[in-house]
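Q: Please design a sequence for this.
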């Protein structure tokens, strides 16, 4: 064979193999879309063999599926929608779906009359399962309307979730969150971030929620702080799941306005106090009363008082928070208050809390290494970053928790050498500025629960929290205040471990409540 013929044959074989490889890639892609995902391409704005149109007009024939019977869906023009074909997705043929469509049609007609919604708008309906809200919009002539849900329901709803949307930035004029989907979201912080990303400047965000108490309502507004409140109203729902619905209409700030707004996500150092709105004052009034008179048997009185505590989360809905955080200052062992109290008894409303354990005693550090969901801060909570001395005082009148080891107190370096005795063990530890750590760790919109048992150091830490304004970051505080209490072991004698009085403790609790902190006397 001639050399030229061999070269042609080699080239032909190469081209055939490349062609077969390309066909294999296409087949695999098609199989992934149809078999694995069970739907056509839905990744708007991303790579896909079967991409959607830029204008999102993917449901141009939604009106074909309306019933022609007496229960037919009425369009915004007043006439009956076209009769449906023989084969219709089962949910669309049900009375429940049609009832929902009529409800949403009424809602959207009101918003159109108030210039919140316009026929030219690109609209997104978030986490809608059957697309009844999208259907209503399409029937009203808003053709650029689409829904997203974890499970697609073509052609009305494509695959996506509120906290992870398959769309480009600033693409929608109007976003609708119906059916209480905001409070149902498992990632509220990401949910709010995605709303901010995909909504155009000056676009509208409309939310249907059951939040009707002041606390949850204000939390909802804080979650979407990139928007201004336009209006809200309460309306009757269409099913038993939400018999009463609060409609909240928000508008995203414009570009320049958003820039000048400088959305606050941290504490303002310019003031020491907290702004205490009336709804927080009302909640403080609903808390259990403080014990005004010093108890003669504090180990009984204060322990019984714990049973009377009115937890903040039992008084209000805490659903609209981007994060839920529990901070145990003076945590001791993992099983001490984190497990025995917070995990088992605190009403968390099915929320997952991030847990921080602040514990300076090295005795307890090792057991935290294997505990998931808990972050250990192996330092002493203090007013600044410095080396401290940690004293373990075997006080016979105080509770011992682990193998007879007493409770620990921190002391600044200069006073560490004084007053030591054979019953006191002293360790050198690192203290950190707790107020600054708190400021850098949580935001005003987070739900923060704190337990503080620091053997007298509360008289240093609480004023520091007031000084920096970080006291405003705490929603609920369980504080054990240490004073020269009467001793259980020795009738008629006060402990010499602490020099503060019960009156000073009471002043501390009172100042915290006046600052809007839902504080409790802890034991």
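A: Design:
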């Amino acid at each position: 064979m001639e050399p030229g013929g061999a070269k042609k044959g080699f080239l032909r074989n190469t081209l055939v193999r490349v062609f077969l490889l390309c066909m294999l890639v296409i087949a695999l892609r098609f199989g992934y879309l149809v078999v694995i995902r069970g739907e056509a391409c839905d990744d708007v704005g991303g790579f896909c063999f079967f991409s959607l149109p830029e204008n999102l007009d993917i449901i141009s024939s939604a009106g074909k599926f309306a019933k022609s019977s007496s229960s037919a869906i009425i369009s915004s023009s007043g006439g009956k929608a076209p009769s449906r074909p023989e084969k219709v997705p089962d949910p669309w043929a049900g009375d429940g779906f049609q009832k929902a469509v009529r409800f949403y049609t009424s809602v959207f007609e009101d918003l159109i009359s108030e210039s919140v919604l316009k026929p030219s708008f690109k609209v997104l309906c978030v986490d809608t399962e059957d697309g009844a809200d999208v259907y209503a919009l399409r029937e009203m002539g808003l053709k650029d309307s689409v829904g997203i849900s974890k499970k697609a329901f073509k052609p009305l709803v494509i695959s996506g979730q509120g906290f992870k949307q398959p769309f480009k930035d600033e693409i929608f004029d109007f976003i609708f969150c119906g059916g209480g989907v905001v409070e149902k979201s498992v990632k509220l912080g990401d949910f709010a971030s995605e709303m901010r990303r995909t909504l155009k400047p000056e676009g509208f965000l409309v939310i249907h929620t059951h939040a009707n108490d002041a606390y949850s309502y204000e939390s909802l507004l804080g979650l979407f702080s990139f928007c201004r409140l336009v209006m809200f109203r309460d309306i009757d729902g269409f099913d038993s799941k939400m018999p009463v619905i609060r409609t909240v209409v928000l508008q995203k700030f414009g570009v320049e306005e958003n820039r000048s707004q400088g959305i606050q996500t941290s504490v303002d150092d310019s003031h020491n106090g907290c702004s205490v709105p009336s709804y927080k004052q009302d909640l403080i009034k609903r808390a259990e009363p403080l014990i005004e008179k010093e108890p003669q048997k504090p180990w009984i009185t204060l322990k019984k008082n714990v049973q009377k505590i009115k937890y903040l989360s039992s008084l209000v809905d805490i659903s609209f928070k981007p994060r839920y955080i529990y901070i145990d200052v003076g945590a001791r062992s993992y099983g001490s208050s984190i497990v025995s109290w917070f995990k088992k008894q605190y009403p968390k409303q099915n929320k997952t809390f991030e847990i921080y354990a602040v514990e300076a005693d090295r005795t307890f550090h090792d057991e935290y290494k294997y505990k998931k969901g808990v972050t250990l801060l192996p330092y002493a909570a203090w007013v600044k970053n410095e080396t401290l001395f940690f004293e373990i005082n075997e006080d016979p009148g105080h509770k011992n928790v682990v193998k007879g080891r007493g409770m620990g107190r921190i002391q600044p370096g200069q006073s560490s050498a004084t007053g030591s005795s054979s019953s006191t063990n002293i360790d050198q530890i690192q203290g950190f500025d707790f107020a600054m750590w708190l400021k850098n760790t949580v935001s005003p919109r987070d739900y923060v629960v704190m337990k503080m048992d620091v053997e007298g150091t509360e008289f240093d830490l609480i004023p520091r929290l007031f000084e920096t304004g970080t006291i405003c970051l705490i929603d609920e505080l369980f504080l054990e205040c240490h004073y020269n209490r009467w001793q259980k072991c020795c009738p008629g004698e006060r402990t010499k471990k602490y020099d503060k009085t019960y009156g000073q403790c009471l002043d501390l609790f009172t100042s915290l409540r006046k600052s809007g902190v839902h504080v409790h006397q802890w034991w």
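Q: Thanks. Anything notable?
A: The CA atoms of residues 67 and 93 lie 8 Å apart. The two ends are 99 Å apart (CA to CA).
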